[in-house]
Design brief:
mainly alpha; about 100 residues; about 70% helix
Amino acid sequence: MRALDLDFIGRRNKRKRTWRGFFLFFLSCSFAAYVGVTYYKVSQQLAASTIELQGRRAVSRQNEPVAMTAEQTEKMRAEIKQANKIIARLALPWDELFRIVES
């Protein structure tokens, strides 16, 4: 009967380092560097966009008086008159009106 060879360290069969292993290591390091640089660029773009958006919101919140032309002023006055007429109609005493109509 033959003796069992339980040498797990592999002293007898040392593996040679192959170019494929180094290539895969270099490839994975390059990919990790690419992902890191891309993440940095995207985070910088996001920060710049956020600052720009906040600036636009601040500008849009400012209430600056707008100069209106004479035509726009007349149109606005007509709309206000129409709105006042509608409000006056809605302010009628509806209960009394329904009593008159129902009797």
